[in-house]
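= Paired protein data =
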Amino acid sequence: MAFELPDLPYAHDALASNGMSKETLEFHHDLHHNAYVVNGNKLIAGTEWESKSLEDIITGTYDKNAVAQSGIFNNASQHWNHAQFWEMMGPKGRQMPSELESRITDAFGSVDKFKAEFSAAGAGQFGSGWCWLVVDTDGTLKVTKTENGVNPLCFNQTALLGCDVWEHSYYIDYRNKRPDYLSNFLDNLVNWENVASRLASA
C-alpha cells in the first residue's frame, strides 16, 4: 500500500520546552521522514510490494545476511520507525504508569538502571541507528540497538520505545552531544503512557 506521511500528534513547537525544537521537528518530520515516504513509494511502484502492508514489506525485504539492506527496506523501515517515534514522544504523559514502572523494575532492577542501559545502547550505536525497549519473543523486556533503519519487527520483537540516534534527530539542538540528547529524551520527551499502552497490547 502507498506510504503516507502521518501528521505529528502535536504542534511542531509543542516539544520546544522539553528539549526538541520546532526547527528540529520541521527538518526531521517534514523533510527527512517525508523523504522516506516519497522515495519508498517510488521504489515499490510496480513491484510485488506495492499492495503489501508496511509491516509485510519490512519483514519481507529484510535480509539478515546482507552487508547493506535494499532501498525498499531502508525507506519502508525508516517510515515505520519514524511513525512510531512521533507517537512515543509528547508534551504530556511524562509520568510513568505504575504497571510499566513495575515491569521495568523487574526486568532491569530499577527505572534508573533501565535508563542507563537504554542511554548506553544509544550512545554506543556506531554511526546511524536506533536504540529500543522491546518485548522479546520470550516475553521479557530488553534493551536493544539496531543499525541504520533496522527495527524490532525484523526480529519478531514488539517495540515499546525507540529513540532515533541518526544525527538529523539531534544535531540542531545538541550538536555532537548524543548522550545529552538521550538523557533529555528519557527525562523530558517520552510519552510513558504511550509506552505503557504498547506493553498492554503486546
Remarks:
- The first helix runs from residue 22 to 44.
- The radius of gyration is 16 Å.
- The chain has eight helices and three strands.
